[in-house]
Design goal:
The complex is a heterodimer of chains A (234) and B (253). Chain A is α+β, with helices and mostly antiparallel strands and 234 residues long. Chain A has four helices and nine strands; from the N terminus they run E-E-E-E-H-E-H-E-E-H-E-E-H. Chain A has a single domain (18-224), classed as GHMP Kinase, N-terminal domain (Ribosomal Protein S5, domain 2), CATH 3.30.230.70. Chain A has helices at 85-98, 125-139, 166-169, 199-228, and strands at residues 18-22, 30-36, 39-50, 63-70, 110-120, 148-156, 159-162, 175-183, 188-191. In chain A, a hairpin with a 7-residue loop joins strand 1 (18-22) and strand 2 (30-36). The model of chain A has no long low-confidence stretch (mean pLDDT 96). Chain B has 253 residues and is α+β, with helices and mostly antiparallel strands. Chain B has five helices and twelve strands. In chain B, strand 1 and strand 2 (39-45) form a beta hairpin. The radius of gyration of chain B is 19 Å and the shape is elongated. The mean pLDDT of chain B is 96. The chains are: A alpha+beta (234), B alpha+beta (253). At the A-B interface, strand 3 and strand 5 of A face strand 3 and strand 6 of B.
C-alpha cells in the first residue's frame, strides 16, 4: 500500500515544529527542554558530583549516568510510575549516545547525572530526550567535544520518512522505526531499528537522519548562543 | 548560606529574599501542560515548580463503598527537581506529600465520589492525580495542592466505548469541584511563624503544620518537623491558613 500523504501534512523529509529552551530547572547544574511536535522532553544535569556507592567510582575519569523516565500522564493510557524494561534500555542507549562527546578525565571518582523526563509523548521521545540532554550537559559546563542531536527516521508504508509521529509509528500497513543520534561531525552514537527494511532503504533513511540531525544541531547551537549572549567571560 | 544567619534574620522579622514572614513568593498557575492527560496544570511559586496530570480509568469499587469512585494521588520526587532526590520507589517524603494532597481533596468532599459511580458494585471511575515536582525550591506541599486542584478542575472524562475506556478520547464532561480545599503550610523557626519557605529556609525549620481549608472549615492537617508545637502556635497557624485560603483561592479562579 502506498503512503501518499503524511497524516499531518508534512513533506516526507520534513521535521515537526521544534522548540528548545535552556536553564528551565534552576536547581540543576544544567537543564534544557526540547519539543518536537507534541513530544516534550526535559533534561536536568547534576554534577560532576561525588559518586556513591564508592565501588562504582573510576579513579581514571568521571562517569556518566543517564535516566530516562516518562510522566504517568504523558501517554494516553496512564503509565505506572517507575522504571520499566523499556525505560531501562533507553537510559542505557542514551548514555552510550552521549558519552562519546564528553571529556570526563578531569573528574576522577565523580559522576555526571542526566535525568530525562518526558512530559508529553507523541513518538520520538528517546531522541528528544537525547537532544535535550546534550544541551543540558553544555549548559552545565561539562567539557564536550561536540553536541549530539537525535531523530527517528524510518519507513512508513512504502515511504522513507523523518521524525515519525505516533500515527506513523502505528501505521496499519507497517512501519520501520530507526532512532538515530549523531554528533555534529556525523559520528553515529545511537542506532536502533524495529521493523522490516532493505539495506538500500535503510541507507536512504540514514541519509535523511543526517539532514534532520543537522537541522536539530542548528537549533541547539542557536539556543545555546542566544542563552549566553550578553554573558561576559569572567 | 549560613543556617544561623537565616535563623537570626527571621528573629528580626526578615527573610533572605526580603519577603515578609507571611508573604508568599509570586504564584503562577498554567493549564494544559500535557495533552495526553485528562487535565493538567503547572504551579510555580517563586522558583518552585510542580506539574500535575489527572487521568481517569474504570475500576472496581471498594466492597464497603460499592456506589463510590475514588481518587489515587501519587507524588514522584524525580531527581530532576532536587540534587538530593534519588531514583527508586517513593520514599517517605513522596508518600507523605501525596497523602497530604489526597486528604485535603478527599475530606473536603469537593469531589462527590458517588458521582464517580458507573455501575453500582461493579464499575467506578478512579481519578489518578499524579504529582511531579520539576524544581524544588521549597514548599512543595502548597504548590502540589494548587496544581492538583487546577488540574482536577480542568479534567475531562474520556469516553467509554464497548465497556472500555477510550483513552484517546475526551468528552466535554468535567469533574465539578464543589469547593477548593487550599492547603497552606506554616513553618516554625524559633518562635516565628512563616509561610512558603524556599529550600534554604526549609533546611532550618523546626516544625511545620499543613492546614487544608475550604470555605473557612478545616479538612486536613499534618504536623511535620522534629520540634513540638505549642497550643498557641497551632491557634495562630490556623488563623494564617484561614487568611491564606482566600488569598490563594484567587489563583484558581
Amino acid at each position: 500500500m502506498s503512503y501518499t500523504k503524511r497524516n499531518d501534512g508534512r513533506k516526507f523529509d520534513e521535521m515537526r515544529k521544534m522548540e528548545a529552551k535552556l536553564g528551565i530547572i534552576p536547581r540543576a547544574d544544567g537543564s534544557a527542554m526540547f519539543k518536537v511536535g507534541d513530544t516534550i522532553a526535559i533534561a536536568a544535569v547534576y554534577g560532576p558530583r561525588e559518586l556513591h556507592p564508592k565501588f562504582m567510582q573510576n579513579p581514571e575519569r568521571g562517569i556518566l549516568r543517564c535516566n530516562y523516565d516518562m510522566t504517568s500522564f504523558s501517554v494516553p493510557e496512564r503509565k505506572r510510575p517507575g522504571p520499566s524494561r523499556r525505560s531501562t534500555e533507553i537510559s542505557l542507549v542514551t548514555e552510550k549516545a552521549l558519552i562519546p562527546v564528553l571529556d570526563l578525565k578531569q573528574f576522577p571518582n565523580a559522576v555526571v547525572d542526566v535525568f530525562i523526563e518526558i512530559i508529553q509523548a507523541n513518538s520520538g521521545t528517546r531522541c528528544a530526550g537525547i537532544t535535550a540532554a546534550s544541551m543540558a550537559l553544555a549548559h552545565a559546563g561539562v567539557p564536550m567535544k561536540d553536541l549530539v542531536s537525535a531523530v527517528s527516521v524510518g519507513k512508513v508504508g512504502d515511504k522513507i520518512v523523518i521524525d515519525l509521529d505516533k500515527y506513523e509509528e502505528d501505521y496499519e500497513d507497517g512501519a520501520t522505526d530507526i532512532p538515530v543520534a549523531m554528533t555534529g561531525n556525523y559520528d553515529i552514537t545511537l542506532l536502533q531499528l524495529d521493523g522490516n527494511v532493505s539495506k538500500d532503504d535503510f541507507l536512504k533513511a540514514l541519509e535523511l537522519a543526517k539532514k534532520g540531525c543537522s537541522e536539530i544541531d542548528k537549533i541547539q547551537r542557536k539556543t545555546l548562543r542566544e542563552f549566553y549572549k550578553g554573558v561576559k567571560n569572567e | 548560606m549560613n543556617n544561623d544567619y537565616i535563623r537570626s534574620l527571621i528573629e528580626k522579622g526578615k527573610r533572605i529574599d526580603d519577603r515578609k514572614l507571611d508573604e508568599f513568593r509570586k504564584i503562577v498557575i498554567e493549564t494544559n501542560v500535557s495533552k495526553n492527560s485528562a487535565g493538567s496544570a503547572r504551579c510555580k511559586i517563586g522558583e518552585t515548580e510542580v506539574i500535575v496530570g489527572v487521568k481517569f480509568d474504570i475500576g472496581e469499587p471498594y466492597p464497603d463503598s460499592p456506589g463510590e469512585g475514588t481518587i489515587i494521588v501519587t507524588a514522584e520526587l524525580i531527581p530532576v527537581a532536587n540534587p538530593d532526590f534519588e531514583l527508586g520507589p517513593p520514599g517517605s517524603k513522596a508518600t507523605e506529600l501525596a497523602r497530604i494532597v489526597d486528604r485535603g481533596i478527599r475530606e473536603s468532599e469537593c469531589i462527590d465520589f458517588r458521582k464517580l459511580c458507573v455501575k453500582e458494585g461493579e464499575k467506578v471511575w478512579m481519578v489518578f492525580i499524579d504529582i511531579y515536582p520539576l524544581n524544588d525550591d521549597g514548599n512543595l506541599i502548597d504548590a502540589s495542592v494548587l496544581a492538583s486542584l487546577k488540574a482536577l478542575s480542568e479534567a475531562k472524562f474520556p469516553k467509554i466505548v464497548n465497556d472500555k475506556v477510550d483513552h484517546e478520547s475526551k468528552t466535554n464532561v468535567g469533574l465539578k469541584l464543589s469547593k477548593l480545599p487550599i492547603t497552606t503550610t506554616i513553618y516554625k523557626i524559633n518562635n516565628n511563624l512563616i509561610v512558603d519557605v524556599n529550600n534554604k529556609e526549609e533546611e532550618v525549620i523546626d516544625a511545620r503544620l499543613s492546614v487544608s481549608v475550604a470555605d473557612g472549615n478545616i479538612h486536613a492537617m499534618q504536623k511535620g518537623g522534629d520540634v513540638p508545637l505549642r497550643f498557641d502556635d497551632i491557634n495562630k497557624m490556623i488563623d494564617i491558613a484561614m487568611k491564606k485560603e482566600k488569598e490563594l483561592a484567587k489563583f484558581l479562579k
